[in-house]
Each structure stands twice: as structure tokens, then as C-alpha cells.
Prior knowledge:
The structure holds 2 protein chains of 2 kinds.
Chain A: H1 2-42, H2 46-64, H3 73-94, H4 96-103, H5 106-134, H6 141-255, H7 261-285, E1 294-296, H8 297-312, E2 316-321, E3 328-330, H9 333-349, E4 355-364, E5 367-373, H10 381-386, H11 404-414, E6 418-424, E7 428-436, E8 458-462, H12 466-478, E9 482-486, H13 489-498, E10 505-509, H14 517-527, E11 532-537, E12 553-556, H15 561-577
Parallel strand pairs in A: 2-4, 8-9, 8-10, 10-11, 11-12
Antiparallel strand pairs in A: 1-3, 4-5, 5-7, 6-7
Helix pairs in contact in A: 1-6, 2-3, 2-6, 3-4, 3-5, 5-6, 6-7, 8-9, 9-11, 13-14
Chain B: H1 2-13, E1 29-35, E2 45-49, H2 50-54, E3 59-62, E4 73-78, H3 79-86, E5 92-97, E6 102-106, H4 107-112, E7 116-121, E8 124-125, E9 135-137, H5 149-154, E10 159-164
Parallel strand pairs in B: 1-10
Antiparallel strand pairs in B: 1-2, 3-4, 4-7, 5-6, 5-10, 7-8, 7-9
Amino acid sequence: MILALRRPLVAVPLTVLTALLVLLILSAVRVHEMSDAVERQSREAMNWSASQMEVEFWRLAQAVGRQENTVSPKTLEEISLRIDILWSRMRLFQSGEMGVRLAGLPDIRRLVDRLDIELRTIDRIFHEYSAQVALGVEIPRAELEGRLAPQFEAAAPLLRDLALEANVVGAKRWEELVARHRSLVTELIGLLGGVFLLGLVLLVILARQLREARQREGSEKMEAVGRLAGGVSHEINNVLAIVSGFTEMAQKAAEAGQPVDKHLDRIGQAALRGQRIAQDLLAFGRKSVGKDAVFDLRDLLIQQEQLLLPLLGERVRLDLSVPNDPLPVQGDADLMGQVVMNLAINARDAMPDGGTIALQATRKGSHAILVVKDQGIGMDARTVRRIFEPFFTTKGPGKGTGLGLSIVYGAIHRIGGKIKVASEVGKGTTFTLTLNRAAHGHARCQAAAPLPVNSGGVILVAEDEPDLLHLMENTLASLGYRVLTASSGEEALAVQARHDGPIHVLLSDIVMPGIHGTELAQRIRAIRPETRVVLMTGFPGRDIGTGDIKNEKILQKPVDTAELARVLAAAVGEARRVPPGLGSGQAATVPRLGHGAE
Amino acid sequence: MTRLLMVVLLWWGCVAPVSAEALLRKDGIILSVSGAIERHNEKDAFLFTYDTLSALGLSRIRTSTPWTDGVPEFEGVLVSRVVDYLGGKGSTMVVTALNDYRVEIPMEDVLRYPVLFAVSMDGQRLTPRDKGPIWIIYPRDQFAELRGEKARTRSVWQLKSIEFK
């Protein structure tokens, strides 16, 4: 169920996320391209180079026009330098990045080619004169200037046109760049929009899947509840059928004057079976009972072994393996006992021809591992998937309630543990329970105390169910107590008012019409501070929240006689130790009786 | 545009006298170094000829530039070697070209990267007519960070002089 839920939840977002990632990478590449283009523009050197050419030509003309009569070697050297600089500038148009670009700009290239010709002519004329100067010939400056003038005149408009063309090219390039920039920005906005939309789609998909999952979960819950109700009614009907059938038979037998023991036995067994169903249901619905409690898993297993041995029969062997030291574990010992019992009984039932159940507890880091392994018939994968569902059972009708493993599952999860099943048809099944080890080795001691002897206290019983009240009266009387009965809270108050002498214990149902058990307890204690209170409830922990009853002992119905006896004995003992009148002026009005008052 | 107009006007208006700058080289001197240096062969300066410069040891770098075709091989003296040889101090070198183009090169550049005072390209001596005799070459193909505008403006050709600051 969990897997089926998760697969679409993961797969779709994964696909969408991958798409998002690809888009984001594309955006990043685009952004990079854009910044690259911008950077290139800053390197746009054509305008600059064109104007530099013009400046250098001008400087050359200045050198030629130096104020002197004859051309000096110094002037020639400077002219040579200026020509060198011009040639270096000219090369920029003919090679490298700008050379490549000029290949696509024939107008500018034509201008550069013509400038190249003029510069060559200037160069040639300059060399002619510098050779003459080297030979000692005196050259009038005006002559050199006159020879070079046509070249300068020809170069001037070329340079101007070059600068203008370069500007036009630069402007065009700028326009291109702006257009490109704009399209990139548009593209980016589109991509971001896409990302946003995809994110939205992702959110919608996720929301829908979550909703569907929740609905599915809800319908599964309803299904479970339906199955639960069906199972419960089926089980109870069985019990009722047995009870009514044997009651009828007993009546007939009684009329015929025959013994009815056998029939009553059957009825009693059916009642016990009903009680077991109720207990199972309670355990199933129990809240986080005993989450903070700690018990010794090793001790528990040793105790369980004693309980299990008679149940397993001759052909099933129990192989218990526990550590030498105590193994404190978080959780409720009773619940855990039920878990072990359930698993062991299942293991036994899986081995009709006998075999060995291995029960093994080990430490593993902060966990305790409990393995229950049988050599039985095993289960197929389909069965394994369903075994923790309530009322799912492979056992024959009337053999199991189908609640066992679901209780196990619930119990283990409630105490923060995990349960895993491995099974192979024909080879057996292994349950592996991972439990949280307790930080402190404080284990609750659950050694059975001997049943207390008759302690002769006075007990006031308040119970609105007449049959139960009657039963309780008989039970308590048989334990040797003096019993006062009341069928409601109000009546209980009236009874205690009429009663001269101590009331050691108030034993009250919590849920009653009129005055609740909790309120009754408070009132009685206000009047009789020495009276101990023991409450009973048929609900698992739900209605205990009202009033100050933290210190009260609460018994879960149906109440086990032995436990009732123990609790009452303790409470009576406590009540007797409290000196009358402690902390309450009213207590003085209560007549004191000796301990042997009955 | 204004500058262009001005240049054109000056061009036609020809020709004011130029102050005679120290543009001219005597006796094969190709580089003059001044400023915070410990070694001198002239008052407050060190002058290199092609021979004295290349005597410091020639290195080669193969790299493209925005001004050349293909991937030429440059040969020259590592700038860091010149700095060592002269005991150059300070954090910057102010380099000046024949046309008085001037730019500052942080010392860090030449200590971190093999920047070259290139004197030849593809086995041909660089002439003053083609960016010689010295061209500062950054290994831009080897280091991506040297492909930007800064290294570009520092790749001075027709190098004339250096001042350590």
C-alpha cells in the first residue's frame, strides 16, 4: 500500500524536476552568452583603431612639417618612427579579430587597402630621402613636404571615410547587440515563465496526489473499520449463538430434571471467548500506553517461555536465546508479552507437523532485535502483504480472530519499533522486531505477588450496571470484605452518609449517569479523607482526563479477580495506615472504630 | 565625434611645431627601465639592447591574441626574470609604448603568470613595423581569466619604457 502510494508521488515530480533542471542550465548558458556578447562589444575596437590611424597620420604630417630649412637626421628618425607606428596600426585591420570582421565589410576593406597604398608610397619616398641624407645630401624641408603632400591629401578623405564607416559599423553592431540583448532577455523571461509554470504544475500535481493519497487512505480506513465491524459482529454472533443455544438446552435439561453442568460450562467458555475478543479489541484501539515505560526483554522472554511451553505441544520445540545481561527496552511489558505470545502461537500454527520456534533477542547499537523464526509452511508474497491487516486470517473459522498480527503491528509501532517479515513457502517465516533500547537499565519488575489474604476492610461499590454490581458484591464478599453497594453516585453518597464507621475503599465505575466516578471520588474524599479510591473503566484511557484523579488506581474492565484482590488489599492497607482526621476537620466527626470492627 | 572633427580640422589646418620628445633610440637600445630598481647602467635607469635583454634567457609561449591570426608561438624574456634581474620593487609597472600609449601593469600579473616581453613571433623577430621590437604577451590561451579586457589593454606592443612604482 505504501509503495503503491509513493510511486506516482515520486516519478512525476522527478520528471518535472529534471525538465526544470535542463531549462535552468539552458538559461544559465544563455545568460553567459549574453554577458559574453556585452563583453565583446566593450572590445569593439574598430572605431578606436580608425581614429588612432587618423591621429598617427596627423603626427606623421607634423613630423614632416617640422620648422627647419633642411631635413635633419632627427626629423628623419621621427618620421621613421611614425611610419612604424602607422604600419603597426595598419596591420590591426589586416589580421586577428578585426581582419576577420573586415572580410565581411568590403567598404571598409577597400578604404584600408587604399590607405595601405598611400602609406607604401609615403614609405618609399621617405626611404629615398633618408638614403640621400645618409650620403650627406642636404634636402630642403619644403621639398620633402612637397613630395609627400599628394599622399597626405589622398589619405585625408580616406581616413575621414574610414572613421565614419567604422562609426556606422559600430552603430550597426550596437543595434545588433541591443536586438540580441532584447531577444535574450525575452528568451530568459520566457524560460523563467516556463520554470514558474512548471513549478505551478508540479505543485498542482503534488497537491492532487496528496489529496488522492489522503482519500485513498481514508477509504482504506473506512474499509478497515468495515472489516473490523464485520469481524467483531461475526465473532460476537458466534459467542451469542453458543450462549443462547446452550442456555436453551440448559433450560430444557433443567425442566427434564437432567444435570446442566456441561451446558453451563459451554456458556462459561463462550463468555471467556467473548472476553478475549473484547480484550483484543481494546489492545487494538489502545492509545500510546506505556510509551515511556521500560521493561527487560530478556526477563520477559524467559517468563513468556514458561507460559508458552504448555501451549506449544509436544511436537514444537522452543529454542530461546537471550543475552546474559538484562536487555532494557522501551515499551509496555504487557503489550510486548501479547506480541510474543501472538507470534509464537502463529509460529506453532504454521508448523502442524512440528518443528522448532527460534526466539532470539540480541543487542544492535541503540536497538534490541527480537527474531521469531519458524520452520513452518511459510506464506506467499500476497499473503505477506496482507498479514498485518485487521481480521485478515489464514486460519480456519473459529480458530483466530484475525486481530493478532494487526495488534502486534500496532503495538510495535506505538513503542517506536519496527517489524519486518520474511517468508518463503515451504521453508518458514521470520519476524524481525527492532525495538528501542532504554537508556537506563531500569526495568519494571512484574513478578507475580501472592494472592493477598482476606484483609477484612469495608468497601463501597458504585456501579450502575446491576449485574456487574451484583457480581462485584459476590466477588468482594468471597474475598472477605464487607461490601456496601450503590447503583449510582448519588446513592453512594447516601450510603456512605448512613454508614457509621470507616469505609476503606471506594470502588467505583467511572462512567455513570448523574455523578461520575471521578466526582464521586472527590466528594467522598472530602468527607472521608482516609478512604482510598479505586476506579474502574471499560474504555481505554479516554474518559480519565476529568478531575484530579491522577493518584487514583484505575482498573480496566473486565477486571481480573486476582488483580482486584491485590489492588483492594493494598488500598485497604493504605487506608488503615492513614490516621483519621489527617488534614481535614470533618474527619473528626467520623467515629473511630477499631481495626477488628467487623 | 567631436574629437574626430577636431582631428580633421587640425589635419587641414596643418601643422604646429612638435616638441621634440625622447622618441628616438640611440645605439640599438630597445627598452629603458627606471623607477624602483636596484641595478642601473645609466643614471637612474637600465637600458636594454636586444642582446642584453635576450641574454636573460628566452622562453616560449604559444597563444592566440585578438590581433594575430591562428596560434603563433612567441619567444621572449619572462617579465618576472627582468624584475628579478633588476631587483624591481613596488606594486606596479607603468609601461609606455612608442606612440605614448601608457598603462599600469600590477606586479602580481607578472609574478603569477608567465607574461612575456616577446621579441619574436613564429621565429621572426618582431619589427617596429609590426608591434616590435617588444610586445607584452599574456598567456591568454592557458589562463581563461586572461581573456578579458584588462589583460587586453596590458598587452602593449612597441614597448618603449618601464617605470617601477
